[in-house]
């Protein structure tokens, strides 16, 4: 039995920190275990910088020591410390042990070959042993960081850290751990004192612990006095070595301030002599030379200190977990490292021009739905992140019912592509894990025939074109689903109002929706003179950073900017500066997409805003103007969520919201409302405050109520109830009336009746801006205004034409020319081609066609019968606006046959007269024909449309230059070459007006196309005899004056049909047709000397106003 004092002595050395051996002998016992060569000695359990006594002589206990080792294997690792006798002796100075030197030596001896897992190589990264930090941070939606708060005792470290922790946890939902100087000394550092060596060890241990928390994605708040600069730098270095974020926060509070605070009474004890060696008083404190955050909190409120640190965490990207920008401005929701415009716009991306063209051609084999340019702009530039195309059904349902989407941008749960795949109703296991705002439907309506074409197309993509026929891009992996219009309207608008302009648009769309991701060939450009103010989210973000913004607040405009608006914007900036931001930048954001007809045009607003900047009512040094491209849908509380979320996509953190945002007056067709407004004026901003837009705390509101004009200082401001008589309200309607009257600035005193005085209050608007507004309201009917972002394009026009005006406006006109003279496309171009130019079709008559509407274009162009030379111009709606086809894109060229006329007095078998227009032609060639071009075509068949009680024949034709014309001679051949085309034509002709709210058209013969011969029969009936006297022409069915019969004319089939009609006893009169009308073409009759006789010249002259002229032969002025 060993003596108790021996065990006690052994345990003091073994458990307390190791044996202290004094040796210089070369014969010291060697431990031969290889593993022992890499194990460092445990720390000594000694207080202070020196031991109380010299280490004992190992000679006296060596035998006992060896015996203990053999008997107790648990202590073997402690025995191995004998090997370090020489090192320990080296740390002994004059018999006193230097623990600091010992610790340094022990740390230097840390085994280099200890690894956490087999996958990590010696000396290499340990990442293989853990979930990679980036994946961890993305999934946690926060990034680990250490905030090392240093400063004198009482400088506010713990107080500020506690408040910061509370904010991060309760408001932001983040994981935070505090390592306070006091709480770590109750456990981790309980064995340490306050000597320099122990302080250094305390910093080292806390630093290591902070690294562990930090690496786990925890925001770690260290609050240690940590007086020595070298110790703090060592902690920083450990973080940097492991790739961990570290911020040194200096509580920059003077000694006299902390002495006055003295929250624990320690400074009083120091003053009383009860405490010695107190940091900052009689012990050194080395303040940081270059702290990451200098926080003079003695001059700041607690909330401001917390805000500063929160903003610093934003800048570091800690609060998001994913990619971040050094500016601290928010990145778009779902951002994974690339801007959407760089991915979705092919010219910005990796695709070559040839591959893009190949994709386009493959897609065109399917169908060509018409996409609104505003929607393509919004999607392709990334204004609705994370949307990458038109909504699929599952995405639409989320937007309608939750005003948000669940996303998994980093594929944490395998749902990264969930919103970009075909909707699968049976997928009940996978769902995104993060919710982002998506409040309005962004959908692409299509028609039945487009649906059929997509579903039968072998292509996996669909080409997208605009209303002018320009290819915009492709939609990949298409998904077609029903357009449940009632559900969309009720969920998005919360009301049923057929008179609401955008609800009417929803109902006018096709009965199906097309979803899928898009790729756009090139950036959207409108070429209307305003493109310099159209900046993408990425470009705006760059502009904000260039101005040094630490926060951006967006102000949306749909009206000219007056002093009241400027007051809101300036006041908003002042609020942000008061909150501690250094350089808030204003984003003046005019709404650029579609707006209702009585809204102020876009060009008026933009140029007026620029005048406000030029005259510095708003400071251009802290203002960026950028047009927002989305259409206005007037959906009140729902839409305003999209307005705010979309501005976040370009870096804005605040959105200015006033009364009645995105509101509209109810129409007379609406159900009952308590007032004239569709939405309560306060609902939008309240709904926005509660919406998913603000869930990640990266977006906030700047809300304002009504403001007034102060007559005493000519400023707009909030009402002062103590002097209400000094304030006047200037409504929008009053401003419009004053502008229409060209009101000039009022003189003091400001009159009570501004309209009667015809003056506008001083300072209400900058003078140059007011002049722009007056010009608009005094010339409001001018067609030159740009109501919203519509592309200005140059149409494909024939070289033998002259164009005047602007395409897309009602003044645009195309005149045909022949030589140096204008020519009428109706009367001056011959119907029948004089000579046959193609041997392949020599047996079939060829005719001239005038193209009015090129293939893939939607502008409803037509020959103007009542204008000089019959120019081709755009038809108009009842309100005078240019008319467009809205029921899908015309997939054919459309035009007329010259020198033909659908006689209103010729009654069809169905009892309808002609529509008083030239005979229409649908040309089914492969490519667009130029506007105003004259093209040789061959007739294939016809369709008889009953359009609003009138007969409107549609001749189906094919140009003779088409490669397929060799083998396509009638509609049967056409159907063999292009299956389903005639069915699509029938569908389009029946339904094309329904998208404008009109009834379905009716086709005779159950919509079956006639044969080529029957179509030529129709064509022959519509020819006019003589353009000089404008008499309608007919030919006798009986023998002509030289005795020739029709059967000998070269049209035996037609002649046979005539003979059959005659022999059956069915006269033209009894069949409802006007007597004297021939079934054979006028040109053929003319070549066979058939008899012609004039018929109703007055009716003919009225219908065929030849370029607005009457001939002198009729006794009328030329």
TrEMBL record:
Chain segments carrying region Disordered: 26-56, 1051-1095
Pfam families: APS_kinase, ATP-sulfurylase, PUA_2, Pyrophosphatase
Cofactors that this protein relies on: Mg(2+)
Signal peptide, first to last residue: 1-20
Domain Sulphate adenylyltransferase catalytic: 532-746
One GO-annotated biological process of the protein: phosphate-containing compound metabolic process
Residue spans of biased composition, Low complexity class: 1064-1078
Domain ATP-sulfurylase PUA-like: 355-522
Polar residues bias spans: 28-39
Known pathway: Sulfur metabolism
Keyword Thylakoid (UniProt): no
All residue ranges annotated as the APS kinase domain in the record: 144-294
GO terms for cellular component: cytoplasm
UniProt keywords, alphabetically: ATP-binding, Hydrolase, Kinase, Magnesium, Metal-binding, Nucleotide-binding, Signal, Transferase
GO molecular function: adenylylsulfate kinase activity; ATP binding; inorganic diphosphate phosphatase activity; magnesium ion binding; sulfate adenylyltransferase (ATP) activity
Family of this protein: Belongs to the PPase family.
HAMAP family in the record: Adenylyl_sulf_kinase (MF_00065)
Name this protein carries in UniProt: Uncharacterized protein
Organism the protein comes from: Aureococcus anophagefferens (Harmful bloom alga)
């Amino acid at each position: 039995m060993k003596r108790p004092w021996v065990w006690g002595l052994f345990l003091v050395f073994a458990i307390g920190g190791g044996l202290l051996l004094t040796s210089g002998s070369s014969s010291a016992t060697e431990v031969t275990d290889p593993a022992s060569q890499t194990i460092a000695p445990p720390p000594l359990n000694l207080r202070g910088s020196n031991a109380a006594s010299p280490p004992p002589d190992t000679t006296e206990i060596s035998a006992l020591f060896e015996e203990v080792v053999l008997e107790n294997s648990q202590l073997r690792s402690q025995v191995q410390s004998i090997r370090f006798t020489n090192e320990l002796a080296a740390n002994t100075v004059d018999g006193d042990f230097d623990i600091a030197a010992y610790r340094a030596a022990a740390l230097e001896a840390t085994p280099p070959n200890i690894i956490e897992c087999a996958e990590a190589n010696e000396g290499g990264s340990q990442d293989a042993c853990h979930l990679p930090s980036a994946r961890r941070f993305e999934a946690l939606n926060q990034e680990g960081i250490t905030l090392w708060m240093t400063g004198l005792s009482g400088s506010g470290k713990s107080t500020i850290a506690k408040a910061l922790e509370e904010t991060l946890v309760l408001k932001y939902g983040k994981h935070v751990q505090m390592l306070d100087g006091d709480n770590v000394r109750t456990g981790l550092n309980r064995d340490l004192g306050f000597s320099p060596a122990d302080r250094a060890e305390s910093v080292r241990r806390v630093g290591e612990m902070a690294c562990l928390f930090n690496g786990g994605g925890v925001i770690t708040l260290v609050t240690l006095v940590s007086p020595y600069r070298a110790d703090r730098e060592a902690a920083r270095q450990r973080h940097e070595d492991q790739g961990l974020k570290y911020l040194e926060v200096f509580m920059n509070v003077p000694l006299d301030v902390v002495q006055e605070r003295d929250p624990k009474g320690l400074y009083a004890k120091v003053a009383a002599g009860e405490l010695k060696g107190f940091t900052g008083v009689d012990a050194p404190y080395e303040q940081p030379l270059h702290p990451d955050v200098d926080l003079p909190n003695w001059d700041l409120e607690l909330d401001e200190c917390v805000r500063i640190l929160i903003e610093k965490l934003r800048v570091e990207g800690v609060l998001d977990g994913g990619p971040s920008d050094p500016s601290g401005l928010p990145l778009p929701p779902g951002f994974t490292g690339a801007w959407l415009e760089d991915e979705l716009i092919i010219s910005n991306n990796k695709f070559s021009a040839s591959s893009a063209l190949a994709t386009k051609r493959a897609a065109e084999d399917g169908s060509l739905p018409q996409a609104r340019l505003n929607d393509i702009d919004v999607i392709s530039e990334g204004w609705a992140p994370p949307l990458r195309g038109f909504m699929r059904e599952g995405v639409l349902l989320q937007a309608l019912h939750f005003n948000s989407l669940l996303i998994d941008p980093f594929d944490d749960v395998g749902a990264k592509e969930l919103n970009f795949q075909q909707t699968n109703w049976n997928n009940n296991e996978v769902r995104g894990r993060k919710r982002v705002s998506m409040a309005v439907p962004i959908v692409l309506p299509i028609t039945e025939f487009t649906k059929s074409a997509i579903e039968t197309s072998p292509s996996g993509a669909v080409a997208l074109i605009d209303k002018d026929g320009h290819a915009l891009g492709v939609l990949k992996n298409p998904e077609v689903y029903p357009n449940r219009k009632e559900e969309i309207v009720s969920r998005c608008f919360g009301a049923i109002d057929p008179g609401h302009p955008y609800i009417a648009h929803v109902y006018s769309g096709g009965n199906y929706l097309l979803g899928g991701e898009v790729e756009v060939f090139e950036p959207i450009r409108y070429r209307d003179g305003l493109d310099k103010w159209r900046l993408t989210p990425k470009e705006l973000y760059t502009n904000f950073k260039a101005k040094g913004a630490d926060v951006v607040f967006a102000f949306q405009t749909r009206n000219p900017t007056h002093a009241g608006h400027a007051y809101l914007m300036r006041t908003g900036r002042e609020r942000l500066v008061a909150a501690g931001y250094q350089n808030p930048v204003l984003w003046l954001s005019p709404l650029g997409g579609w707006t209702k007809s009585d809204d102020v045009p876009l060009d008026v607003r933009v140029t007026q805003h620029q005048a406000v900047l030029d005259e510095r009512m708003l400071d251009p040094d802290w203002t960026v103007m950028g047009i927002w491209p989305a259409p206005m849908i007037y959906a009140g509380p729902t839409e305003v969520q999209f307005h705010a979320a979309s501005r976040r996509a370009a870096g804005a953190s605040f959105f200015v919201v006033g009364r009645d945002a995105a509101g509209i007056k109810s129409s007379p067709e609406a159900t009952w409302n308590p007032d004239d407004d569709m939405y309560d004026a306060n609902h939008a901003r309240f709904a926005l405050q509660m919406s998913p837009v603000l869930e990640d705390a990266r977006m906030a509101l700047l809300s304002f109520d009504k403001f007034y004009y102060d007559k005493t200082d000519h400023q707009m401001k909030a009402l002062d109830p103590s002097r209400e008589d000094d304030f006047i309200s200037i409504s929008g309607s009053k401003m419009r009336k004053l502008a229409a009257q060209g009101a000039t600035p009022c003189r003091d005193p400001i009159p009570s009746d501004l309209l009667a005085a015809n003056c506008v209050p001083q300072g209400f608007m900058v003078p140059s801006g007011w002049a722009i507004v007056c010009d608009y309201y005094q010339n409001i009917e001018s067609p030159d205004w740009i109501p919203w972002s519509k592309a200005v394009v140059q149409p494909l026009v024939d070289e033998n034409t002259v164009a005047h005006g602007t395409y897309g406006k009602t003044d645009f006109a195309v005149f045909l020319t022949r030589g140096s003279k204008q020519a009428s496309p109706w009367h001056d171009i011959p119907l029948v081609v004089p000579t046959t130019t193609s041997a392949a079709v020599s047996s079939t008559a060829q005719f001239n066609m005038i193209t009015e509407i090129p293939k893939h274009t939607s502008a409803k162009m037509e020959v103007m019968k009542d204008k000089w030379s019959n120019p081709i111009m755009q038809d108009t709606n009842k309100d005078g606006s240019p008319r467009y086809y809205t029921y899908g894109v015309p997939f054919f060229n459309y035009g007329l046959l010259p020198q033909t006329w659908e006689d209103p007095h010729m009654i069809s078998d169905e009892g309808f007269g002609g529509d008083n227009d030239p005979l229409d032609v649908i040309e089914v060639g492969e490519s667009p024909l130029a506007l105003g071009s004259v093209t040789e075509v061959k007739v294939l068949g016809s369709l008889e449309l009953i359009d609003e009680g009138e007969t409107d024949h549609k001749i189906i034709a094919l140009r003779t230059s088409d490669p397929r014309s060799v083998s396509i001679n009638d509609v049967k051949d056409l159907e063999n070459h292009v299956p389903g085309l005639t069915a699509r034509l029938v569908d389009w002709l029946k339904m094309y007006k329904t998208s404008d709210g009109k009834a379905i058209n009716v086709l005779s013969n159950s919509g079956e196309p006639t044969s080529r011969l029957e179509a030529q029969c129709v064509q022959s009936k519509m020819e006019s005899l003589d353009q000089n006297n404008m008499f309608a022409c007919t030919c006798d069915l009986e023998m002509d004056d030289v005795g020739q019969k029709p059967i000998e004319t070269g049209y035996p089939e037609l002649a046979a049909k005539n003979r059959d009609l005659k022999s059956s006893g069915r006269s033209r009169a009894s069949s409802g047709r006007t007597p004297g009308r021939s079934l054979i073409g006028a040109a053929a009759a003319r070549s066979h000397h058939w008899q012609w006789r004039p018929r109703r010249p007055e009716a003919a002259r009225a219908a065929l106003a030849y370029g607005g002229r009457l001939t002198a032969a009729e006794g009328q002025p030329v």
